[in-house]
Amino acid sequence: PGFGSSSLVVEKGLKAGWEGTRLWLSLPKLTASKLRSKKDSIGVWCQHMMLESGIHDPENIRVRCLEGNESVNYLDPGLLTSSLTYVMGPLIESLEDVGYTESNLGTAPYDWRLPPSYLETRDGYFTKLKEKIERLKANNDKRVVVICHSMGNRVFSYFLNWMKHKDGGKTWIKENVHTFVAVGAPWLGASKTVRSLVSGERFGMENLLVEKEGIDFGRSIGSVNFLVPNYLSKWFTTGSIVKNFLYVAESGSPAISNNDSGGVTSPKEGRGGSQLTARRAAYKSSYWSFFQEECKLDSVLKVHTDHYLYDPCFHTHKKTQNGSADTSKDKGKQKVEEEKKEEVEEVLKVEMYSEMESIVSAPPVDNLWCIYGVNLDTEYFYYYKRNPITNVLELDKDAERSESFEGYRIKDGIGFETKDTYQECIKEKKSGDGTVPYVSLYHCFAWKDDLNLIVDELEGCEHRSILNNRLFFKKLIEYVAEKWVLGQVHSGGLERFLDSDDDEEEEAHHSVTKDAKLFVSSGKDK
Q1: Are 303 and 286 in contact (CB under 8 A)?
Q2: 3-state SS track over 351-390
Q3: Which of 6, 102, 293, 500 is a plausible cystine mate for 109, CB 3.0–4.6 Å?
């Protein structure tokens, strides 16, 4: 499952009656949290959800991931809430309809608030995942198909890198994993995480969470860094008229032209750019500098340097190419700390991700099937201004009247790519799935020569709703099921996938495939 898609339970808490019950996502607890003493205070629900230093529960609180299928089926099961909080439930039920049981179908929920390395340190997550895959293979004498959604794709990619660093790891992957099915994968990250770090994210629960809770929660969890966009210059900005994710207004200041190093800057005058350029860069080097200096997010940067920058499963850095940073005792603790500090400063001067290959390289599997929605308005960049009273950065909702980029839509300070946005990677106009920008979804095609690759685009299919999409279910079952199961399907066992509406869905899908000219591709002959 992806970000926010595994249920979390309270093992120890501040409220009577909460222990042993779901915290994420519990609407009754959220409602109770709304009854706070002060408007800008942190409610009790958010106090339980937040982490210290990106990894630790607060004092007297212990929240952990619920295990088993029930963790990822529906976040808040109930007659009125299941349909609103589904995750893998519809998919699992569809697989069970064609005969899948616990002997050949499993789930791998996790605490999605943690950095990937700490999932193993605290919970032994990757060790348990390895054992689950081995058990499924042993039960069926067949390699396993692993289906991931959203951030779950990054978690599984991290797991594959983690296995590669073990003796015999590459052989284990080949012998145990048949196909990696990547659903709505943010291979290069998603720009929404930039907004969540600067001005907060309330996950559509604005009526239940105050603005401060959205900001503090987003900055407290260690997994947000896992999705901050990678390779600004190399992938996101190449051939694009939008060069950065953050544009900051400073009244009375002269315009500053675009820079190609990524980060924060102003729109460029001329074709497709703004004609009113009263926006300037606070820091040009990278948005990590911006987070640190402009937003005072030292804690966010510390999480990155502590849990990502030197992690060989995430970041191929000159100090991690042999598996870990050089921290040998003979160097002395002080010298190691000095070198680490110098290295962080060096990375901030250039691009934070300039050498980051591990998490964006081809996964070491034989077969990769990527499926995702396209042509929905998707967040891509942001306009900010400082509140003249509080001096806090906030989205500039007046930007849409003064700024414009050809093919993009601006609303309430947020720039969206649309179906009319030109994508340099395919030389056509297209947009993402409503959450992940198109270039991030498409990145898998860079690996077409490294593995057997199939890519399916579903017209108008939203990032989360693809998990309840009949065409996706039908394609998946046809891919993984035995012939006798397919016979049951076509003889009426799964009529809901084969009604007349599916003909229209298939036609829309094949139209996308034909227009894009790239979506059924095979690399190695296997």
Answers
A1: no
A2: CCCCCCCHHHCCCCCCEEEEEEEECECEEEEEEEEECCCC
A3: 6
pLDDT tens digits along 395-441: 988 887 766 778 999 999 999 999 999 998 899 999 999 999 999 99
pLDDT one-digit tens code per residue, 222-251: 999 899 886 555 666 555 666 677 778 765
338 token code pair: 């000095």
In sequence order, the β-bridge partners of residue 299 are none
Single-letter residue type at 48:
H
* Phi/psi of residue 442, nearest 5 degrees: -75, -20
Residue 164 scores a pLDDT above 80? yes
Distances (CA, A) of 76 to 3, 53, 87, 102: 16, 28, 10, 22
Q: Where are the alpha helices (DSSP H) in 200-324?
A: 211-220, 287-289, 298-307
Dihedral over Cα of 206, 209, 211, 213: its sign:
negative
Alpha-carbon span 29 to 433, nearest angstrom? 30
Q: Please state, in angstroms and rounded to a whole number, the distance separating the CA atoms of residues 473 and 102.
A: 19
CA distance 352 to 234: 12
Prediction pTM value: 0.84
Angle made by CA atoms 148, 152, 158, in degrees to the nearest 5: 110
Share in percent of the chain as helix, strand, coil (round to 5): 40, 15, 45
| Mean per-residue pLDDT over the chain, rounded | 79
Rounded Cα–Cα distance for residues 87 and 110 (Å)? 14
How is residue 372 written in tokens? 């995702």
E strand or H helix at 8, and its extent? strand 8-12
pLDDT greater than 60 at residue 278: no
Please state whether beta strands 520-522 and 367-374 pair in parallel, antiparallel, or not at all (unpaired): unpaired
The pLDDT of 257-276, averaged and rounded, is 36
Distance CA 320, CA 316 (A): 6
Q: How confident is the model at residue 371 (pLDDT cuts 50, 70, 90)?
A: very high
Three-state secondary-structure class, residue 279: strand
Tokens of 54: 């990106």
Asked whether residue 172 carries a pLDDT value surpassing 50, the answer given is yes
d(CA 282, CA 275): 20
pLDDT at 492: 52
